[in-house]
Amino acid sequence: MSNWKEVVALDGIPVLGSRVFRTDETEIAIFRTRDDSIFAVHNACPHKGGVLSEGIVHGHKVTCPLHNWVINLEDGEAQGADKGSTACFETKVESGMVYINL
Ligand code: FES
User: Fold this and answer.
1) SS3 state at 52
2) Atom of ligand 1 nearest to the CA of 82
3) Which residues surround ligand 1 with Cβ inside 6 Å?
4) Where are the domains of the chain?
């Protein structure tokens, strides 16, 4: 099911940065990678809920600011020996605006 929501201007997200979008149910971190890809994931680390939007973006991954778990932004999965995942949301960019599929 599609429920596309316009969330932010692409120019409003710095490269290697993020913006936070809140719904009634959840908080979503929207990341812009160096190759200008946009990813959206639930803004909580699967380890102990670290705020992923405050993490370091590298490649298509983000390192959690709390204990350095690395989360793959493509599928929300923790990398390496760490086990867990955070929810991902589809994204698209149209006419300079970022949309996420809630
Ligand atoms: S809460 Fe993210 S690594 Fe611990």
Assistant:
1) helix
2) 3
3) 45, 47-50, 64, 66-69
4) 4-101
